[in-house]
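We now fix the convention by which a protein and its fold are recorded. Think of the row as the fold of the chain written in a discrete alphabet. Here is one such record, which you should read through line by line.
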Amino acid sequence: MILPGLIYFLIFKYLPMWGMVIAFQDYIAFLGVTGSKWVGFKHFVNFFNDPDFMLLFRNTILLALYNLFFFFPLPILIALMLNELRNQILKRWVQSLIYIPHFMSWVVISGIVYILLTPEAGIVNELIASMGWNKINFLASSDWFRSLIILEVIWRETGWGTIIFLAALAGVDPQLYEASRIDGAGRMRQLWHITLPCIRSTIVILLILRLGNFMDSGFEQIFLMMNAMNREVAEVFDTYVYTYGIVQGQFSYSTAVGLFKSLIALILVIGANYAAKKFGEEGIY
């Protein structure tokens, strides 16, 4: 049963790692990996000396922190709220409703956002104008870009993120709640002293895994929302790799950038796992 999964990871995750060697070469497609010239850390040095490096690093880190602090807790909160619903029909209806956005592509979501926020005839701007205020060009404003990105992520992924937490909540022993009610504990006491401690290990593991994708800002979403007016805050490592790797064909340079990003994620995962073990949690290994 696990064979298809193993084959998938072998073909699409582990075998492509061999391609990382071109980060240390002046890779030429006609010569291949074995025939291209070895240049060591040349591309890394060029990347770190690039005037855009600090801009890319700042934008990527800020979006990652926004995701971590504003998005990550929401699936936990929604799962706890759904767990308190006693009407099963209402619970399933709400779950289905909040799962739907996950199945929409970023192209569709970006189109919806454009329709809502465009200054010409967007519903939001029409509402603002009807109140006597000036219209806001959300889509071309660098001040609104990060907020829009995080709101899109929250709307699309929060419901889907509740699945694992709801599964963890289903595994909490009901006898613990019965014993707490006998002792006079209310719903908030049960939540704080039983529910959260019982799913704490799940929260920690998912947080560690989230840190593994800390530097992944989401290329498709940002690429669709980025324009000349907000590029200063929108350009991140993912879009930078696309520009230099796919558009300009600098495969070695873009691979070096991607490898740097992956090394940061690896360090974060190892550090978070170590910290989790220090605090008595299981960690991921």
About this structure: The domain at 22-278 is CATH 1.10.3720.10 (MetI-like fold).
